């Protein structure tokens, strides 16, 4: 076991997080159970007293305790952990989330060795942390140890923090814990129980006597790694590791938000331009420094009476430069009049992503194709900003016998199907398909659609979609009196003629 | 002190005017673009300057509704690399027909617009970007000379082919387009009349060119008439084997 490590971990386990994260009213006064996949994962004190137990099915729990049943919400739990991480960031920058699947418990693990001096020693540090935690609505247990995992498991036993704990003491405390706590590894626990292991201490004695490799053989590397993490055992026997495992630094969520206030009320878009450019350049700087890019920004204009208007700007491709976002923003602003006299303009960018590194071939001859590709992307982004996403599309073939069904509108990012079956490949197909077939009048025993039609080629019988709205048509190529070739059909169900397309 | 006499505004001389890029001087080809795209039709090429559709300039096709526009442009579009953008098409392009014609659907882009303002803005963006071909159909509202000129200038900034389809009535209006043609399907084919071409002065009556329409569009004899025809020509020519003819039902 490596003795050099001076790290100290504090685990804070929120035992009732699955219930308290839901923020229910009066969850203390009545029996409540939290369920997941129809099994009880948490029961409050009243429910437990009435006989509800973990892993019980809902019906039994309800019959026993007449409790209220609530579904677990993992998103809310994560949100709470996230919020708490932000608060603990005042104490230590090394914060990690810990989640036990088997026990359905989650919490935070903090590495605190480097921040004890700042808070005047371990005892005073822990007091401050616990005072802070007492103000939150979440009940908690804590554990202190030389490794993150050991601290987590020690949180299941309660020891007051004296301030002079050492590694041997932690190991001594660990040794008393029952192996049932390793519920996340049920197979290993079962095997260990069969072999007569009851506490962590039994395992530690075995490791000291026989080395870790005997566990590795019987229980697999994953479980052995966990044991090594708990006891801080260095698995490299040849030579002790030079460096310790790096600690994860908690990164608080950051986003870009800047605003410019005008000295005078702005009434026309033209006057906003310089402010927009300035804010976007700031965003561009922000993104460049963090090696990030963004795809979506939001503008908020407001007047002195706190009236607000939001303008969203989306780009097809992630951007780290401001130029395209500027163009797209202006398109959005051009499309609307300013609703009030603008006093403040704010730019917010919440969602960023790491910069995609694009590799490209060195191009000394300035290949014009690359310019075209870039121009194309920008043009499409501008068109979409102006006309909306659905106004720009590609075409594709969809397998069917009914002509209008075969014509598919495909989004630009998707691939379009171009494999035309033999039956369509050889048949006569017009270049234009009318959105809705137009009825042909029959005058003097002749077909009439903006002029008389004479049938030239046909018929081609199309039958399909019998399972939905059955279609049975005879298609013909006809010519109008002004020589325009049109594609017409005789509907066999309605016994009427329609124009469906134009050959052009 | 003597006052410095203010300089009278210098009159613009004819020479200065003639130096302008955008002044059309009949047969002068000084400022017309040389880049052209083969139309795919021999007879049409000969009647066009530089033997093809002018690139980087506005081509205007005046026609009544839909009149063989794909027949006219498909051969050249197959030669042109890049995208084919259909701006405000009059109906839905039928994917099957384009696959048959050999046009890669990945290249074909449809842009729908709601009004004339968006149409002009879209046309300007697209033609300026030189992404390939822009085929645009003028919306129902008529377009002013200024608007057309904006389109022409945008087209001249690009390097692709920019075509605007306009109603037949627009033929009577003046337009800054580099090439203006009138298209109409007649009984023998697609009739093309080139009525304006920058750099070529029309001195005599314009003679329309007729392009042949596909064989598939030609009428086929009704099924019962096939045998009659065959019996007439029995002595001279061997009748075609019936198996190669699609069985047809005639007029209804």
Explain this structure to me?
The complex is a heterodimer of chains A (504) and B (252). Chain A has helices at residues 17-20, 45-49, 58-65, 74-88, 122-134, 148-154, 167-175, 186-194, 200-210, 213-231, 269-290, 322-334, 368-387, 403-406, 422-425; strands spanning 9-14, 32-36, 39-43, 68-71, 95-100, 105-111, 141-145, 256-266, 292-302, 308-319, 342-349, 352-354, 392-397, 407-410, 432-439, 441-443, 446-448, 452-464, 471-480, 485-491, 496-502. With 504 residues, chain A is of the alpha+beta class. In chain A, the strands form five sheets. A seven-stranded antiparallel beta sheet of chain A has the order 15-21-20-19-18-17-16, with no helix packed on it. In chain A, strands 8, 9, 10, 11 and 12 form a five-stranded antiparallel beta sheet that branches. In chain A, a hairpin with a 4-residue loop joins strand 5 and strand 6 (105-111). The longest helix of chain A is centred in the middle third of the chain and has 22 residues, at 269-290. Chain A is elongated, with a radius of gyration of 35 Å. Chain B has 252 residues and is an alpha/beta fold. Helices cover 26% and strands 21% of the residues of chain B. Chain B contains seven helices and eleven strands. In chain B, the strands form two sheets. In chain B, strands 6-4-7-8-3-9-10-11 form an eight-stranded mixed beta sheet, with helices on both faces. In chain B, strands 1-2 form a two-stranded antiparallel ribbon. In chain B, a hairpin with a 2-residue loop joins strand 9 (179-186) and strand 10 (189-197). The radius of gyration of chain B is 24 Å and the shape is globular. The model of chain B is unreliable at 233-237 (pLDDT under 50). The chains are: A alpha+beta (504), B alpha/beta (252). The interface between A and B is large, with 53 and 57 residues.
């Amino acid at each position: 076991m490596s003795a050099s490590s001076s790290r100290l971990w504090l685990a804070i386990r929120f035992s009732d997080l699955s219930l308290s994260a839901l923020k229910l009213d009066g969850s203390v006064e009545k029996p409540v159970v939290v369920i997941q996949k129809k099994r009880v994962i948490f029961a409050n004190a009243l429910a437990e007293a009435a006989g509800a137990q973990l892993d019980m099915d809902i019906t039994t729990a309800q019959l026993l305790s007449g409790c209220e049943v609530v579904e677990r919400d993992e998103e809310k739990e994560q949100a709470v952990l996230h919020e708490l991480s932000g608060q603990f960031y005042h104490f230590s920058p090394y914060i990690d989330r810990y989640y036990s699947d088997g026990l359905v418990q989650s919490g935070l693990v903090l590495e605190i060795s480097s921040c004890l001096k700042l808070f005047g020693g371990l005892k005073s540090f822990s007091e401050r942390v616990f005072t802070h935690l007492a103000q939150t609505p979440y009940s908690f247990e804590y554990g202190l140890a030389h490794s993150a995992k050991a601290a987590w498991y020690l949180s299941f036993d309660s020891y007051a923090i004296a301030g002079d704990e050492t590694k041997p003491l932690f190991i001594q405390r660990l040794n008393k814990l029952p192996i049932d706590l390793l519920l996340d590894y049920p197979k290993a626990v079962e095997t260990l129980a069969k072999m007569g292991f009851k506490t962590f201490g039994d395992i530690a004695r075995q490791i000291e006597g026989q080395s870790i490799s005997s566990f590795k053989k019987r229980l697999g590397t994953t479980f052995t790694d966990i044991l090594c993490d708990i006891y801080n055992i260095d698995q490299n026997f040849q030579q002790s590791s030079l460096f310790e495992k790096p600690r994860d630094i908690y990164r608080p969520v950051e986003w870009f938000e800047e605003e410019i206030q005008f000295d005078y009320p702005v009434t026309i878009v033209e006057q906003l331009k310089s402010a927009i450019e300035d804010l976007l350049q700031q965003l561009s700087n922000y993104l460049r420094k963090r090696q990030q890019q963004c795809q979506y920004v939001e503008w908020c204009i407001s007047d002195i009476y706190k009236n607000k208007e939001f303008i969203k700007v989306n780009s097809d491709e992630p951007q780290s430069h401001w130029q395209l976002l500027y163009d797209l923003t202006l398109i959005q602003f051009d499309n609307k009049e300013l609703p009030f006299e603008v006093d403040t303009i704010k730019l917010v960018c919440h969602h960023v992503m790491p910069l995609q590194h694009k590799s490209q071939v060195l191009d000394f001859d300035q290949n014009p194709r690359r310019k075209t590709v870039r121009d194309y992307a920008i043009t499409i982004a501008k068109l979409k900003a102006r006309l909306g996403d659905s106004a720009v599309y590609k075409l594709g073939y969809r397998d069917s016998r009914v002509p209008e069904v075969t014509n598919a509108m495909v989004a630009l990012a998707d691939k379009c199907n171009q494999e035309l079956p033999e039956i369509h490949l050889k048949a006569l197909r017009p270049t234009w398909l009318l959105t809705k077939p137009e009825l042909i009048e029959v005058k003097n025993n002749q077909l009439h659609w903006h002029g008389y039609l004479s049938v030239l080629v046909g018929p081609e019988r199309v039958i399909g979609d019998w399972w939905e709205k059955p279609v049975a048509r005879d298609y013909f190529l006809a010519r109008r009196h002004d020589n325009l070739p049109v594609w017409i059909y005789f509907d066999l169900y309605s016994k009427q003629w329609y124009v469906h397309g134009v050959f052009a | 002190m003597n006052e410095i006499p203010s300089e009278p505004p210098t009159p613009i001389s004819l020479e200065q005017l003639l130096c302008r890029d955008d002044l059309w001087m009949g047969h002068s080809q000084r400022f017309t673009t040389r880049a052209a795209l083969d139309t795919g039709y021999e007879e049409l090429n000969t009647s066009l300057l530089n033997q093809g559709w002018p690139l980087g300039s506005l081509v205007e096709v005046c026609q009544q509704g839909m009149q063989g526009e794909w027949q006219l442009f498909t051969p050249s579009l197959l030669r042109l690399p890049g995208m084919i953008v259909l701006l405000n098409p009059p109906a839905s392009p039928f994917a099957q027909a384009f696959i048959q014609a050999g046009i890669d659907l990945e290249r074909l882009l449809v842009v729908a617009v709601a009004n004339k303002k968006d149409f002009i803005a879209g046309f300007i963006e697209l033609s300026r970007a030189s992404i390939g071909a822009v085929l645009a159909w003028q919306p129902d509202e008529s377009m002013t000379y200024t608007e057309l000129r904006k389109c022409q200038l945008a087209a001249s900034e690009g390097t692709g082919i920019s075509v605007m389809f306009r109603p037949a009535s627009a033929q009577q209006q003046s337009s800054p387009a580099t090439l203006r043609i009138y298209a109409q399907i007649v009984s023998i084919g697609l009739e093309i009349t080139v009525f304006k071409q920058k750099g070529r002065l029309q001195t005599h009556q314009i003679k329309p060119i007729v392009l042949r329409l596909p064989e598939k569009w030609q009428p086929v004899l009704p099924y019962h008439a096939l045998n009659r025809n065959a019996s007439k020509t029995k002595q001279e020519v061997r009748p075609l084997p019936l198996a190669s003819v699609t069985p047809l039902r005639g007029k209804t």
